Amino acid sequence: MSSWIQYPPTGLATLTHYSLPEGYVAACGCTPDSTKYPTAALSQMAFGSSANYGPGCGRCFKLSLLNPLVSTPPFTPDEIKSVVVKITDLCPLSQVGWCSGTTERMNSAGSQLNFDLAYPSKAIPGDFFPSDEALYGYKDFGVWNITYEAVSCLSSWQGTSNPKALGSVGALGTSACCPAEPTGNSEDTCPSYSDNNGLPPNTATSDSPMLRPIPSTLLVGLVLSWLVLR
């Protein structure tokens, strides 16, 4: 496999979108409440792992729309729309497609990086993506050319105001890593899970109701019921 992409703090990329249910715990293991705010998946070779968490987890980026990858005639938005996202998921590497960029090749649009925005989402306005349905016959252009800029999560991401949206699910232990503000330092940045770079920093939070352990009294009851039904 190619080496992980060492990308600059600003640059060009492509933007797609995918469905992520509210409350879903994605690859990084970020808390369910993180889905109430703008999040995205990052293409695997920039994410830094082929499974679970990687150095991309928890990072925040300002994504600004430029123009659709494909539109005839060319579509130019009247205004530049931007959103600050937190990386909570990875977009798997493929031979072709938007998340196929590596250190040795670009994706189908000529970019190394692709951000896959969790959208539709209550956290993002329904008209975030500009369109001209009367002219083109559809609202969704699908893939956009964008600029990205690495930004501080604590000062830029909407979810920072909600402590329950920060950190990782405690019940996942060392299988999760979702820093509130990764800086690149080993004490606050996730290693590559697939490279087995050691234990991640402790980013667990107690605000993880979806994955709390089953109470012992309930567990005993379930076991007894199972024995009776055998």
UniProtKB/TrEMBL annotation:
Residues 25-153 form the Expansin-like EG45 domain. InterPro entries: Expansin/allergen_DPBB_dom, RlpA-like_sf. Residues 188-207 are annotated as: Disordered. Pfam families: EXPB1_D1. This is Expansin-like EG45 domain-containing protein. It comes from the Eukaryota.
